[in-house]
Design a protein that fits this description.
Elements (H helix, E strand, L loop, with lengths): L10 H5 L11 H33 L3 H29 L1 H21 L3 H29 L2 H32 L4 H4 L1 H15 L13 H24 L4 H23 L13 H31 L4 H6 L2 H21 L1 H19 L8 H29 L6 H27 L7 H22 L9
Helix pairs in contact: 2-3, 2-5, 2-6, 2-8, 2-11, 3-4, 3-5, 3-9, 3-16, 4-5, 4-8, 5-6, 6-13, 9-10, 9-16, 11-14, 11-15, 11-16, 11-17, 13-15, 14-15, 14-17, 15-16, 16-17
Length: 472
């Protein structure tokens, strides 16, 4: 989701961890470290969206380069998040967490100092690599640090503080863009990273999973390269045209690499994405639903601030603040949605919720957008927020219930990766429309996002079992 919102099923990465054998003496400080570390990834994604127009002007970037500022981050995060979790289990969760935070800080400094857009894109890719290790490690640390009885409250606090920082991020980032420079949004990561590392070294005990003795690097490389080449092909089509042999060659190579990834997962003894999980119709349907819904969500949250700044006179800070109601609604009502899903089942909520979100996307694309925030933007965001709130909690529980407890961690990681990849595809595909000559593509972007959400609702109604049973 471009980092703007938590992806589904992140909680499962912590819930699947075993109880600690020797509880940490500084649990609250350990929790604070994980909150600060994961917030680096969440804030950065949401802040960058409101800074893109300033980056484009300051670095004289073209449309494709603007897309890659976001896609470079999403690509590496989505492709490596599964192996990032395994690396923590294999080499030590605290060690991987601290290394990831340090790399994120170094990459943030490189972003701030980048003299041209090419180096900025490279630094953003390094941030994506770092985030792929930080986020799963932070959740695994919670699972290893807190007992089963304490874990739910710890995860709730982690998610709550993450939601607050994610909501504040665009407002603070927009203010920094307006008052200082877009480069300042990356510099604020440095003191946060320093505090995170200090707390982690002091309060987090090292933990490992002795059963993990192999990392699927082949799968990680094939996934990253396949997604990367396909993304390049889709992005390059905007400048080169669909008749370009280079574009079609890139798409073909990308498809071949991803096919190789699937084959490797079938043959690996310890694959990063076990294909056996997809024996569950509910698990497969939930991930297809995630792909469609988060395609629409990322498209909306990426292009809405850009549209408001470029064509409706909003400052970066004001554009960032427009998304605050969404965070407030989802943060306030998610618990209610979870309890309702327990009472009536996931299927009706995963049918109705995405369709309501689709209506919100459609409203955001209407001609009334320029009539003012209170009449043109806020009503549509409230409808979208309601739809997403209805969808997210049951989606998380559905994915977790569709597989056996031993596969809960990898299942949640797969679903998390699917959400990131959906965002990657949204920025690439919808960017072809938004940045097309003439500049009239925004309503089409929102219309396609609306259709994707409605498709997600149909998928939910057809594939999701009311009480999913584990098949994997």
């Amino acid at each position: 989701m471009s980092g703007a919102r938590h992806s589904p099923c992140e909680d499962g990465l912590a819930l699947s961890q075993p109880d600690p054998k020797s509880p940490a003496p500084h649990k609250r400080l350990a929790l604070a470290a994980t909150v600060l570390g994961s917030s680096l990834a969440f804030i950065d994604g949401s802040v960058v969206n409101v800074a893109l127009p300033a980056m484009r002007a300051g670095l004289k970037a073209d449309a494709a380069q603007v897309q890659w500022i976001v896609n470079a981050y999403l690509l590496l995060l989505g492709a490596l998040v599964l192996i990032g979790g395994s690396a923590g289990d294999r080499y030590g969760r605290r060690k991987v967490f601290v290394a990831g935070v340090a790399l994120f800080a170094a990459a943030s400094l490189a972003c701030a100092l980048s003299p041209n857009v090419e180096l900025l894109i490279l630094a953003r890719a390094l941030q994506g690599v770092a985030a792929a290790f930080v986020v799963p490690a932070s959740l695994a640390i919670l699972g290893a640090t807190f007992s089963e009885k304490e874990r739910g409250a710890a995860i709730g606090a982690w998610a709550g503080f993450g939601a607050v920082t994610t909501a504040i991020g665009p407002v603070l980032g927009g203010w920094l863009v307006d008052v200082v420079s877009w480069r300042a949004i990356f510099l604020i990561n440095l003191p946060i990273a320093a505090a995170t590392i200090g707390l982690a070294l002091f309060a987090i005990p090292e933990s490992r999973d002795p059963d993990v003795d192999h990392l699927d690097w082949l799968g990680a490389v094939l996934a990253a390269c396949g997604l990367g080449v396909m993304t390049w092909g889709l992005t390059a089509a905007g400048a080169r045209g669909w008749t370009s042999p280079a574009v079609w060659s890139g798409l073909a190579v990308g498809v071949a690499l991803l096919a190789g990834f699937i084959v490797s997962q079938a043959r690996q003894k310890h694959p990063m994405m076990p294909l056996s999980l997809y024996k569950s119709k509910t698990f497969s349907g939930a991930n297809l639903l995630t792909l469609a819904l988060y395609f629409g969500l990322t498209g909306a949250l990426f292009f809405l601030p850009f549209e408001l700044i470029a064509h409706h006179g909003y400052s970066a800070a004001k554009a960032g603040a427009t998304l605050l109601p969404m965070s407030l609604v989802m943060g306030t009502l998610s618990g209610v949605a979870g309890r309702l899903a327990d009472r009536i089942g996931a299927r009706p909520m995963l049918t109705i919720g995405p369709i309501i979100a689709g209506i919100g996307f459609g409203l955001l694309g209407g001609p009334w957008l320029g009539s003012g925030y209170w009449t043109g933007v806020l009503p549509a965001l409230l409808v979208l927020s309601l739809g997403m709130t209805i969808s997210v909690a049951p989606l998380t529980s559905t994915v977790m219930a569709a597989v056996s407890a031993s596969h809960a961690g990898v299942a949640s990681g797969v679903n998390n990766a699917v959400a990131r990849i959906a965002g990657l595809l949204a920025v690439s595909v919808l960017g072809l429309i938004y940045f097309a000559p003439g500049g009239a593509g925004y309503p089409w972007v929102m219309g396609i996002s609306a259709v994707a959400a409605v498709i997600a609702g149909v998928v939910g109604g057809v594939t999701i079992a009311s009480k999913p049973q584990s098949d994997a």
